[in-house]
What we know:
The chain is of the alpha+beta class and about 270 residues long. The protein has two helices and 18 strands.
Amino acid sequence: MLSPHLAIRCITISSAFFAYATAAHAVFLYQDSFSGSSATALNTTAPVANTGVILGANHGTSNANWNADVSWKADGSNALTNDGSAFLPFTPQNGFIYDLSLQVDPTAGGSDWMAIAFTQSANASQRIFDSGSTAWMLQRADRTGTDPIQTFTGPGTAGGQNYNPDPDLFGFVTLHVQLDTTQPNWRATWYVDEVGAIRTTHTYGTNPTINYIGFGKFNSAIGTVDNLSLTVTAIPEPSEIAAIGLAMLGGFLFWRRRAKRQTVAE
């Protein structure tokens, strides 16, 4: 039978190993609360950015200034009835989970919309899906229609799926797209943070080319965006978990042998 002290040691070591094995280390790459002025263009302004090597990889966030259509202002507002998007550089790497989210509040424009996306190119004066969008989603200004929120696998409007929340969502809605590159075939999941996941995870047969994140509006939609966030999460490799587990086991066995010797000596 294990002594009380030995039992406590076993529980402590097991808990520490479990905590490490399930740990996920999330770090922000971009944050922007759009605290500028409505009289200032968003274009060329800088978000809060984490550049260089993050969690052992470079995620393409260097020289990060907004490339934005003139209709977008530094306070996140857009009052012009034209297509317009805004982009930041980003290159996903294998082995991570990326979470892109943005609060959107299109206040007028009927079935026209605001959206967030992972994209291949950056055409600020066009609709965001004209930039090779993949894993993207939109919120229409009309919140009571049959398809106020739509998700897309891309490219463009391919793989579209409607989502009609019940009850309807008004005011700011947090659109959230997760890109999982921890498997050979990347996966995407779409969320409305006020609701949760709104679509079954999609696995890509061919991994998409992604060079930017962005948001945009279509045609007559006007309104405001807020609190953009892009985070990266590192998941421990199985080999790393195994190595730590063996090291902890070795330390436990060494401690146990030493404890036995001390007991015999006494």
